[in-house]
Amino acid sequence: MQPTSRRSAKTPSLARHGRLRRSAAWKTILKGVAAVAAVTLVSGGAVAAYAAWDLASSAQPTVTLDSEKVLEGVPDVGAIEGGVNLLVIGSDSRQGQGDGFGDPDEETAVLNDVTMLMHIAEDHSHVEVVSFPRDMYVPVPGTCTDPENPDEELSALSSVKLNSVLAYGGMDCVVKTVEELTGVTIPFAGIVQFMGVAGLSEAIGGVEVCVAEPIEDPYTDTYLTAGMHELSGLAALQFLRVRHGVGDGSDLGRISNQQVFLSALARQLQSDGTLGDPVKLYSIAKVALANMQLSSSLTDPTRMISIAKAMKDVDLSKIAFIQYPTGYMDDGVVPAESAELVNQALQNDEPITFDPNADQTDFASAADPTAPPASPSAEVAAEGDTGEAPAEDASSDAPVESTPPPGSLPSDVTGQTAAEVRCSAGRTLADQ
């Protein structure tokens, strides 16, 4: 299943991925004026005007996505109107990341080891964050352009591992591949490397996570005892990278571990009011602009803030972190039949509900051992209860099948909501 193309085998550097946007000077000036005006309305005064200029000056070179054509006009200074589909791509490139992540000259691969799609509903009532396994075999459409020669289209690929697509065709190609896989249009995307993740976690102020069993992972130098840990900077990054020290040691285990972190992050952002605070959002946007390669649709600071504000009032139980359902094949995985149901939910803007009878702890996360027991089920009450004992039923001894609630997905669609507090199920060196 080796990919073939008309380009050389040489892997392009991260900075050359995608097509750089060439803006005329007058367009740049107008964009700056619009950003200043919008942020001034949000926060007021000359400080806000400076903040908008400061954000724009922090931005890295951008990538223009073909799908950006669906965006029209300038975003409002409040929550963005309508739905949002945003792809977050985590690159394992060592270029420019210092000495703590291996030799960049030796470890030159540019793999999208993390690929997450965030979907915010049209009415902002629910959010889905779908994690796609890095070793999932996917087709790549024939509409990707060569990052080294944007005028040349690359060949379509019938089946390659998802994490090879970034090196093959850059950010826009990863977006197109996920669009073809899910059937949704994705006008926003960003690539983040190791130090970018560390910087973002510091800007947020750290995240407190629960660890059920000790994590011992020499590959990321992560050693955490059972209990609660506040993680920031490098420690947060390494927690998100842990694979051998959690669950079954697989990439699927790492995804579940990442969901423990992300659900805790969502709870924190809502509880401390960050999503409604322009000053806090500004500091996070500044770090993102300085540490991520963003699609040009995201480099407007007011748009970044308006997307964040869309999540301000979403009920935590309506924020779902989903592991894209797959089945094993050879040295990787392939989408399971139920993946199409996830696709349809995204396409139809429907909230995803997990089957409560599904085992959600196969890989990494476990229920919080300190949480109080669930309240007794109301199902024991008889329909139309009058206070009298229910009539004896001859079939009461027969086994009762537990059925998932209407709208929930099959039991192989796993994950958790942001309202659920879970703990990482660690592995010690003795278990590896």
TrEMBL record:
Q: Which organism is it from?
A: Agromyces soli
Protein name stated in the entry: LCP family protein
Which InterPro entries does this entry report, sorted A to Z?
LytR/CpsA/Psr_CW_biosynth, LytR_CpsA_psr
User: What PANTHER family does UniProt report for this protein, alphabetically?
Assistant: POLYISOPRENYL-TEICHOIC ACID--PEPTIDOGLYCAN TEICHOIC ACID TRANSFERASE TAGU
**Family in the record:** Belongs to the LytR/CpsA/Psr (LCP) family.
Q: Where is the Cell envelope-related transcriptional attenuator domain?
A: 112-270
**Pfam families, alphabetically?**
LytR_cpsA_psr
Q: Which intervals of the chain are annotated as region Disordered?
A: 351-432
